[in-house]
Structures are given as structure tokens and as C-alpha cells.
Amino acid sequence: MTPASTLCTSSSLGKSISCYFQQKRTYHPGSRSSAEQASSMDPQLTKSQQKTICSQLGRVKLQLLYKASIHGFTGAAFHQRCDTRGPTVSVGYNASGFVFGGYTKQPFSQSGQYVNDDQAFLFTFNGEKLLKYPVTGPANAVRMIGNSGPYFGEALVLVNGSQPVVYTCPGNYYNFNAAEMHGNNLNLTECEVYHVEEIPEFEKPWRPVVWENETRTELMESIKSYKPTVSSVSQIRVLLIGPVGAGKSSFFNSINSVFRGHVTSQAISGSSTTSLTTQFRTYSVKAGRGGKPLPLILCDTMGLEEGTGAGLDVDDVISILKGHLPNRYQFNPSAPLHSESHGYCGTPGVKDKIHCVAYVIDACKVSIMPTKLEEKLEAIRRKVNLMGVPQLVLMTKVDEACPFVPQDIRNVYMSGYIKEMMQEVSTRLGVPLSCVVPVKNYSEELELDPNCDILLLSAVQQMLRFADNYFDEISDQLSNTEAREQ
């Protein structure tokens, strides 16, 4: 490899560009046991960064193959773990905080030859943004060298010469700015290689759905004719909780659209970094224009936000669950509702309380949910559990999360990716997978789609069933109380 003082000439650019190369002592992994190594085999690439890279590659996920701090900063260790395992994403990390690397569809080997790859690219992260440098010389995109790690043309080599260092020479089959890519810090603190795995579709839907107009009609009639089992309640109240922009207001608009027979937009919805809903709103859905109200009230709240003193307050959630909050109550994140507040309902009945909680989660953001937001949801979920209120999850924007779904919404239960996201949200929110329901809200359409309606109506049907569980619990408590008094 060329020393640092030498200039590399890029034939494609017709000019000389400096190459950078530094040496550092060889890393020896020591004598850690396989169990210790396995416990440390956690990706350094964040979930957000993984999702950003995957968005460039299609319907895929990343599986960690090689981690230099565990397996060794040597070409032999890299090849032992990664040969024949294409396509791959290789990532280098340095002490300056740079995260950079390359993608190739070609499997690695030790042939010493260049390999053609017209889809290869190098990349670096600028914050959460991915800067991508496509290959300019596909015939020389990747070179298979035994004594080094991932070797992209003559442009970027990670674990060069079996050392924890980078070799870089912009212009040799890839064009990039060295300072932009890695800050000219060529000492590696870590190197990882991930296998890019396609997420398969199922041959049969893993949740059976009958996609027929009759199904849509039956669901609508079932919802219209529903009657709560508690005589004092004429409409069940479902509380929608979720991060800003997840689609709470859009869900109401979508349900309202189904029963109106055309797309409507009663609740304020749209894209914003802060909540567009600033009041507690209760929305009653009507069966057609001027029709009777359905036995369902959707309660919309301010969106959850990461920061303290921003978005929906956890204490306000408790007040809503107990039925204390009046309709159109103006949220104040820095001052939760108290008993002296205007409109406070001091003696709510069963009809005023929440009978089911629906967490609204954007399928596109499940894997990159901020920790503080997840902690807020966890705090709310614990309090809802203590109050015995049933909970489910509406996973929205499934058509944006998986390119297989917008081709036909009926593919939603055929998509391996959507199932993985549903399993992940189930784990992160602590609810069974059976309580996670995928939906697609109406956002850009002008006309209704019967198959989209079936997903939306199925979600409402689950809410009614969960509310029945709540009323059954109340009836059991009353029966036990009466039995003790006799």
C-alpha cells in the first residue's frame, strides 16, 4: 500500500489526490470466552442508522457478522466471518465520532482480484443524514485482498494490512471528500460488517382476512348495531395516544370517512414537529351524513413528545382515563389538570371514563423510537394497566414502511417486514402481538378503498371487543361487591 507521503493519481479525475494511511499496533482480542464474546456482539450502528442504510437497499434488515473488537482487527478474522456472505454493509468508526463505510452486493473472498459491482457505494453519516458516494468505476468496485478487511477499489480499505487503521484515496473508483467522510482520522476504534438480508414475503397471509365487499358491509353493520353491556353507557370511549405525527387525528378522519362514504377531514391533521392537537377532543362518528351517532367516541389527545414539559403530560392521561377532562380542554404541558381547573368533572360516571386505550404508532418509526419517548409510553402503559383498561396498538403508515404494501394493501399480512415491525412494537410496548393492528389512514386519497376500509373497520371491531372486556370486569367487580354485602 502506498505510504502517506505519496500522491495517488485518479485516472477518472485526471488529477492527483492525497492518500492517507497511518499505522497502529495490531489488536489482539485476548482470551475472552465465546459466551463473553456473544454477550458483547451488539451492533454499534444505531437502529436509526441501520434503518437509514436499509432505506437505500429495499426491503432488508442487517445482521451483524463481524465485529473487530471481538473477532480481531485482522484480515483473517474478517474473511473467516464474512467470505461468501454477500451482500454486505461494512462500517468503520473512529474516535472523532465519524461513522463511515461501504456497501457491496458481491460476496467477499481472498482471490486478489477486482470484482464488478455497479450498485456499490461508500457512505458517511452527517448526524442522522446519510451522505452517499456511488461507485464511479464499477469494474473495480471491490478488491478481494486476504490481508485486509473490506476493500473498496483503491478508495477505502478498513482494517488495512491487518491493522486497526483506514486507507483512503478519493477518486479511485469512488469520489468523496476525505475530511467529510472520516475527518482524516484514520485510526479505527471499531469495524463492523453486516450481512444484508432480504425480508421475505409469506406465501399465505399470517393473519387471515376475507378481502370482499361483504366483509366491509358486515363490519360496518356490526359496529352500527353494537351495544355496550353496561346499561348506563351508550357509547364506548377509546383514548388515542401516540407520538406527534403518528396519525391519531387521521385515524378518526379515516373512520369518519368510511361511514360518510367519502374522504373527510374533520379533525386537524398534518405534518408538524409539534402536536397539531392542542385540546382534548371527543369525536362521535355518525352513520352517514345526518345519521345516528355510532356507539363509539374517539378521544384525541395532544401528541407525545420527547422533552420534559412538552407534549401530553402523563398526569393528564390519568385524568382522562378517570373521566375528569372536559371536551375541548386546552392542554398545558407545564401544568397538568387539577380539581380546581375550569370544567373539571369531579364525579364522573362509567360513561365518562375511558373504556379502551389505543396507542397509535408510525410503522416507519418503530425501530428509531427515541428512548425518552419509549419511557413515556411505558410510564403511561403501567398506569393504564393499574386501572384495568384494555390496550391495543394501531400501527399506522404500513404502506410507507414496506414497498410491498402500497402495491396492494391486501399484502399487509403477507409482508415479513410488517410482521417484524408488529413484533417489535409488541415487545417495546409490552403488549401481545394479538393486540397490534395495522392500519392505513386516508391521507392523500380522494376516494375510498374498500380494502383499506376493511383494515380500519377491523381495528374498530377490536376496540369494541376490548371495551366488552372492560365492562365484563366492571360487572364482575359489582357482583363480588354485592356478594360480600349479602
Describe the structure.
With 486 residues, the chain is α+β, with helices and mostly antiparallel strands. Helices cover 29% and strands 22% of the residues. It has 13 helices and 21 strands. Strands 18-16-17-15-19-20-21 form a 7-stranded mixed beta sheet, with helices on both faces. A hairpin with a 3-residue loop joins strand 11 and strand 12. The longest helix has 36 residues, at 450-485. It is elongated and about 80 Å long. It starts with 6 loop residues before the first strand and ends with a helix.
Mean pLDDT: 83
Q: In total, how many beta strands? A: 21
Major sheet: arrangement of strands: 18-16-17-15-19-20-21
Structural class: alpha+beta
Helix content: 25-40%
Number of helical regions: 13
Largest sheet, if any? 7 strands, mixed
Low-confidence stretches: 1-39, 270-275
* Straight-line N-to-C gap: 92 Å
Please tell me how large the radius of gyration is: 28 Å
- The best one-word shape is elongated
At a glance:
The chain is 29% helix and 22% strand.
Main traits of this protein?
single chain; 486 residues; alpha+beta; seven-stranded mixed beta sheet; six-stranded antiparallel beta sheet; 13 helices; 21 strands; 29% helix; elongated
Give the SSE layout:
Elements (H helix, E strand, L loop, with lengths): L6 E4 L4 E4 L1 E2 L12 H6 L7 H8 L5 E8 H4 L3 H8 L5 E7 L4 E6 L9 E2 L5 E6 L2 E6 L7 E2 L7 E2 L3 E3 L7 E3 L9 H5 L5 E11 L14 H12 L11 E6 L6 H13 L18 E8 L6 E8 L13 H9 L6 E2 L25 E7 L8 H16 L4 E6 L1 H4 L2 H4 L8 H14 L6 E3 L11 H36 L1
Parallel strand pairs: 15-17, 15-19, 19-20, 20-21
Antiparallel strand pairs: 1-2, 3-13, 4-14, 5-6, 5-14, 6-8, 7-10, 8-9, 11-12, 12-13, 16-17, 16-18
Helix pairs in contact: 6-13, 7-13, 8-9
